[in-house]
């Protein structure tokens, strides 16, 4: 018989087994100086009948505490010798890990784990009923870290999130592992696909989206795509690449094209009522016969847009906001710019012949070299042009 108490194994005694189980517990109590209440065999099986005991069995008795396997038990912290090669057990989030103090200390001596176990009781580490040191962290993320400290290799089983392991490595201060994990995470990510979206792909996308839902195409690449005659109302194309796109006859009513790249695109006869094109780049684009005029009074906003060399001949732009936009060398022949805001706009070398500029605000605009022949409304000096 031997007694197991608080992770300690007391000296054993050989006794004769006879009578009933109660008799055995009485003998054990007298021999070991305890009040024995339970008897276990060497494998942790509870003995409830003396007939189950074999001649060569080693029995363990206790005062009611659960059985502790002598093969996996750990000695209490008080009995550790302080040597850096002592074996110890960690209880990480309810899962047990057995390792040596040197494993936790030697590879990363400045880490949190090293400081926790370098000096005896330095951190006042808490232990569970088995004497295992309690660490309230994720066991599945801790296992790769412990293995790395053992052999210096990053090995992560399938299904384990590398971001979780990285977070634990940062928590425990395993600096050399952090770099390995960041490289592994970067390599595990799929290569960025910068290929343009085709008309077929986009139409499928449009059909799958409810008409009342906001469709965000922010920053997407449509370069060179044929999007002509499509209903693109209210779609968010902010910062999207629409260069060299065919948007002829497309309905872009109230679409957001802020900072979008429309350079070289064709938007002839497109519906641009209430469109937002702030700071967009439409250099060299064709916008002939476009309609920017909204009968409800919603004005198109092209403030700060780059419209160098655009062809906007015959477009309806009543009340349009082109403040501080660049229209150098643009063709604006026969455009309706009634009530347009052109303050601070660069109109150098623009063809404005046949335009209706009644009530347009040209304050501070640059009209150097601009053509005004056959204007429907005379340009008055009071409008303070340059």
UniProtKB/TrEMBL annotation:
Gene Ontology biological process terms from the UniProt entry: protein homooligomerization
Keyword Coiled coil applies: no
Coiled-coil spans in chain: none
Domain BTB as annotated: residue spans: 88-158
UniProt domain KHA: residue ranges: 1-79
SMART domains to which the protein is assigned, alphabetical: BTB
Pathway noted in the entry: Protein modification; protein ubiquitination
Keywords noted in UniProt: Phosphoprotein, Repeat, Ubl conjugation pathway
Official protein name in the record: BTB/POZ domain-containing protein KCTD9
Organism encoding this protein: Anseranas semipalmata
Originating gene: Kctd9
